[in-house]
Amino acid sequence: MEENPPQKKGLGPLAWIGIGCGGIIVIAVIGVIVFSLIFGGKIKQFAEDAQKNPTFAAANMMVTVSAGQIEFVEKDDENKRYTVREKANGKLTTIYWNVKTNLPEVITGDFAAIPAATPAEPPAPAPQ
After folding, report:
1. What is the mean pLDDT of each run of 10 residues along the chain (128 residues)?
2. Burial of 83 per CB tally in 10 Å (0-12, 13-18, 19+)
3. 19, containing H or E segment
4. What's the domain count of the chain?
5. Is 33 in the same domain as 62?
6. How far apart, in whole angstroms, are the C-alpha atoms of residue 61 and residue 19?
7. Neighbours of 94 (CB within 10 A)
8. Over the range 28-44, which residues count as b (16 or more CB within 10 Å of their CB) and which as e?
């Protein structure tokens, strides 16, 4: 008498790996959808603010994500410069719009620490 080998029951290891990978993909897709629903409006608002005044957007983002550890000290919308303070140690940081480079700059200190504006064109040489 020949005995038949017992038949396997259930799924093989490749099937379980496929199910696991598929599950991870489904969870990732759900996570992206939930993240978009919760933070989509805030991200859109930040992008609009950054287009209008990138200096304020950067300073405001620092204050917002600090969970109350950083606060605004001075705001100057006209000159696009903002100073924030770390509550724990009192350190001041100023973000200002550098006209020469046409980019926001970050320095330690208040408005007084902003370097003096340099002329856009070098002065003409003195006649000899």
Report:
1. 70 92 97 90 83 87 88 88 91 88 85 64 55
2. buried
3. helix 13-52
4. 2
5. no
6. 40
7. 23
8. eeeeeeeeeeeeeeeee
Residue 123 forms part of a structural domain: no
Residue 53 CA to residue 1 CA, distance in Å, equals 88
Distance CA 104, CA 106 (A): 7
Q: What are the φ/ψ torsions at residue 44 (nearest 5 degrees)?
A: -65, -45
Domain residue limits at 21: 17-52
Give the integer Cα–Cα distance in Å for 77 and 95: 12
Read off the DSSP letter of residue 7: P
Check residue 128 and give its pLDDT.
Answer: 62
Structure tokens at 112: 């007084």
Lookup result for tokens 């330690």:
108
Cα torsion angle, 98, 103, 108, 109, sign: positive
In a domain, 118, yes or no: no
Number of H helices and number of E strands within the chain? 2, 4
